[in-house]
Amino acid sequence: MESTVALTDQCRQKALELGFEVCGFTSVDVKLRGEYYLKWIAEKQHGTMSWMERNNERRLAPRNILPEAKSILMVGLNYYQDDPDMRGKMAKYALGKDYHKIIYKRLKRLCRWMQEQGGVQKPYVDTGPLLEKPIAVEAGLGWMGKSTLLLHRKFGTFLFLGAIVTTLDLEADPVEQDHCGSCTRCLDICPTNAFPAPYKLDATRCISYLTIEHHGSIPLEFREAIGDRIYGCDDCLDVCPWNRWARTTRESRFLFAGLPDLTETLAWDETAFTERFQGTPITRLKLPRWKRNVCVVLGNIGTLSDIPALKLLAGGDDPMIAEHAMWAIERIQSRNSQSK
Ligand code: SF4
Ligand code: SF4
Fold first, then answer.
1. How many CB atoms lie within 10 A of CB 82?
2. Distance between CA 20 and CA 247 in Å, rounded?
3. What is the DSSP string of 125-158?
């Protein structure tokens, strides 16, 4: 028992030395709300994210990932930064370089150290069938708020999570209690009413889903509510009172590296898009969905000076982009005629 506690302490210390802000542990036989997850999937609230339907025998029972495993280590890395001064908004996690590789490298170093202690490990960064948030709750990193996000008492909601499933026997941390209390700020602020109830998200209505995961045309009913958000949405994070102590990330690669004006990006070809966004989460979108999103944003906040660039797209050969560009032009013209 004493050696378990000592090894756990050393492991936590090692994680903090590697730059993670928080680290906690739970048993590999962690209790997960499998029924809730399967019901959410059955109700199709995950939209077209079909990967969430697969590998549930591992997702809901992490022991099946590594049969000899005893523990799961969870780490969190703060990515908060103020929103940059630019036309249009992007979710803070997407302002800089992609977190997957940055965290994975650190986890691999931690795995090597754990291997020296006799363990066999499997690291994860949002890439495999692992329910990171509920496991992080069990590992004492925070609680899942009414926004369904993980909340840490000190770092609020702006934490990237990483996990290591390990055969090492490590001491579980106490589970954090829910501290949302009577607050409903996240539920009230949501521009698309994506919360059918507290602690429940209908991803198909969420701007993060609509602007990132959703392929094809953005349904008309959501376009105005998307406002100036080009990629993702942080509204339910920004209003959370537990973010009042949020501090700028220590990882400089997460910081915003600038962007040309939105209208200029409408003329980009694949090379220009790749040159600017290589190594960032935005590459997931690919160029057509980027242009689609920019059209929606310009439809909501653009001016007459944006119309020539939009007209070029409206006459282009991608019907999905052309339709969004025409929608944007009509919206700008209608705003302009009303203000006369
Ligand atoms: S990210 Fe935005 S759209 Fe999605 S649930 Fe939060 S506030 Fe609503
Ligand atoms: S905004 Fe309020 S209700 Fe929502 S997650 Fe934060 S504390 Fe909880």
1. 10
2. 14
3. SSSSS--HHHHHHHTTS-EE-TTSSEEBTTTBT-
The model's pTM:
0.91
Does domain 259-340 fall under CATH 1.25.10? My reply is yes
Angle, CA of 93, 289 and 253, to the nearest 5°:
25
Q: Give the pLDDT score at 229.
A: 97
DSSP letters of 254-318? GS------HHHHTT--HHHHHHHHTTSGGGGTHHHHHHHHHHHHHHHH--GGGHHHHHHHHTSS-
Calpha distance 141→130 (Å, rounded): 16
Domain positions in the chain: 1-252, 259-340
Candidates 126, 169, 228, 238; catalytic one: 126
With H, G, I as helix, E, B as strand and everything else as coil, classify residue 62.
helix
Q: Residue range 167-195: average pLDDT?
A: 97
Those residues whose C-beta lies under 8 Å from the C-beta of residue 27, and which sit 6 or more positions away, are 70, 71, 72, 138, 172
Q: Give ligand 2 pocket residues (Cβ under 6 A).
A: 145-147, 151, 180, 183-186, 239-242
Residue nearest to atom 1 of ligand 2 (CA): 240
User: What percent of the chain is modeled with pLDDT above 70?
Assistant: 95
The total number of residues shown for the chain amounts to 340
Give SS3 for 208.
helix
Instruction: Give the closest ligand to the alpha carbon of residue 89.
Output: 1
Q: What is the CA radius of gyration of the chain?
A: 22
Q: What pLDDT shows up at residue 243?
A: 96
Q: Mean of the pLDDT values across residues 193-199?
A: 96
Three-class DSSP category at 216 = coil
Task: Find the residues whose C-beta lies inside 6 A of ligand 1.
Answer: 189-192, 194, 201, 206-208, 233, 235-236
